[in-house]
Known about the structure:
Blueprint: E1 3-5, H1 11-18, E2 23-26, H2 30-47, H3 61-76, H4 79-91, E3 99-101, E4 105-109, E5 138-143, E6 153-155, H5 173-185, E7 208-209, E8 217-221, E9 226-228, E10 237-246, H6 247-252, E11 272-273, H7 282-286, H8 292-295
Parallel strand pairs: 1-2
Antiparallel strand pairs: 2-8, 3-10, 3-11, 4-10, 5-8, 5-10, 6-7, 6-9
Helix pairs in contact: 2-3, 2-4
The chain binds fe (ii) ion (FE2).
Residues 123, 126, 128, 226 line the site of fe (ii) ion.
Amino acid sequence: MNIYVDSKMSDDDRRKELYQGALFVNSPRPSALKLCRLAQDLIEEAFSPLDPVTVHQNLPAEKCAEILAVLKPKFIHHPNAKEYLSKMLAELGCDLEKTYFDVPRMRTAFPGDYLKSGIAYAFHPHRDTWYSAPFCQINWWMPIYKLEAENCMAIHPRYWNQPVRNGSGQYNYHKWNLESRLNAAKHVKTDTRVQPHPEEPIELEPQVRLVSEVGGVYLFSAAQMHSTVPNTTTATRYSIDFRTVHLADVSEQTGAPNIDSACTGTTMGDYLRGTDFSHLPKEALALYLDGTESQYVASPLAGN
Length: 304
Ligand SMILES: [Fe+2]
């Protein structure tokens, strides 16, 4: 596995490398730090007067879940988040006219057994391409507070070209979204939605754990096998991740090879152009539609 640190490679060449399994690590840039600062401000306001990194020691898990249920969407939809994110992409060599991103997510990984499901789901080993992500999707990941090797994220390089039996054949992104809306409308507490898991034992070693500074970001293909590292520290890990696609690769239908994903549907409708936050052109999006997007549409009566 090639790991590039602060590479000066062009974005076109970088994407080609990513589609062959490479990782890219970048030191903090001004807009990445602004995005982290925004996240820190929102986190600290939400948990005030508690220290967010040790909140698990002072707050019942249910109360914490309630706070996260407000905090996480607030960050995702904050008007400054998209602005900082697009500037961050430009600072790292992306052409904003052709690069599309989805809104940044805030993730948490608490120590021990505290809050391991729902709003703070600890991700089992998976490829994002099992979840209807396109093969040209690139994942971006960075820590909001100081990161440790014992509370970060792991990449499992042996599975780059080793297929794994998995449940992606049961997964459809549009169905997932519909079920999420129906669940939310019915205030359902137990999550019955099925996520694609490996269906055979996974060798977690060897694994790569990239431990960057706050605002240091790393990039990997959506086809990489990755997982949440069980947090054995005393500190909660807060991180930001988001995804990008490049219009040329979308149109040419290039990207990482598909070795074991069988899901249907596509996340292609989610990405927003770096310049004006518009969606992908219809003709580009159409290449990825398989008909399931019209099969799973919320009924106008849903939630009544
Ligand atoms: Fe993932």
